[in-house]
């Protein structure tokens, strides 16, 4: 398959690229700046918001793994998403977003999200949370786009081992008063990457938000 990975030099993008490469897919990477040690042969140096219809033409899937953690870049989670999905509208190319766990609902009536729990997401993270949430709402209101919002759990470990085992859940997470006591709240980037490529290869979960997790946090007091 022909895949595009946006944010290919980030933790998630790099893990997803390695898994895609291991399985023999043809990958085009997108990065907003040059890096000293190129990871991928086919590389576009572009801001996500500068991608064109020609750039995405012929791709089987576009995986948006942009990190964008700071106040100057966090709007990319909505602006970049809106731009790319507009390019893909009406095509057969899938769009998959590495989502934010803050967007998970904490009640079955979908009235509250994990970002509302400030012991999980303190006040200084709320702007980033809103950027992720806005991106998800753009997807949910879109038409003619084949999208999947692939949410990691609260504990997303860049250094965790590859177990090759994971579970798929929906958009509901039931938090506890203490984030350290959560269950089914952990996955390594390596296992998440396996799940992402499985979803692409098997054409699963169109127009849904899902969660990938492997189990409980092996070091409950550690934040990632």
TrEMBL record:
Gene3D superfamilies per record: NAD(P)-binding Rossmann-like Domain
NAD(P)-binding domain location: 10-202
The organism of origin for this protein: Secundilactobacillus similis DSM 23365 = JCM 2765
InterPro entries assigned to the protein according to its UniProt record, in alphabetical order: NAD(P)-bd_dom, NAD(P)-bd_dom_sf, Polyketide_Oxido-like
GO terms assigned for molecular function: oxidoreductase activity, acting on the CH-NH group of donors, NAD or NADP as acceptor
Protein name as catalogued: NAD(P)-binding domain-containing protein
Organism superkingdom: Bacteria
């Amino acid at each position: 398959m022909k895949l595009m990975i946006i944010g290919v030099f980030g933790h998630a993008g790099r893990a997803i690229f390695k898994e895609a490469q291991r399985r023999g897919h043809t990958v085009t990477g997108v990065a907003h700046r040059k890096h000293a040690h190129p990871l991928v042969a086919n590389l576009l140096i572009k801001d996500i918001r500068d991608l064109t219809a020609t750039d995405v033409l012929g791709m089987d899937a576009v995986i948006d793994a942009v990190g964008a953690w700071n106040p100057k870049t966090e709007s990319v989670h909505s602006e970049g998403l809106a731009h790319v999905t507009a390019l893909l509208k009406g095509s057969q190319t899938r769009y998959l977003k590495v989502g934010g766990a803050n967007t998970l609902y904490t009640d079955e009536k979908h009235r509250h999200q994990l970002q509302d729990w400030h012991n999980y997401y303190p006040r200084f993270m709320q702007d980033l949370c809103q950027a992720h949430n806005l991106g998800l709402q753009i997807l949910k209101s879109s038409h003619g786009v084949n999208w999947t919002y692939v949410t990691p759990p609260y504990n997303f470990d860049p250094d965790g081992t590859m177990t090759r085992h994971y579970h798929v859940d929906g958009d509901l997470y039931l938090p506890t008063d203490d984030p350290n006591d959560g269950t089914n709240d952990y996955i390594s980037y390596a296992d998440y990457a396996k799940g992402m490529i499985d979803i692409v290869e098997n054409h699963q979960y169109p127009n849904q938000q899902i969660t990938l997790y492997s189990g409980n946090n092996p070091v409950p007091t550690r934040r990632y």
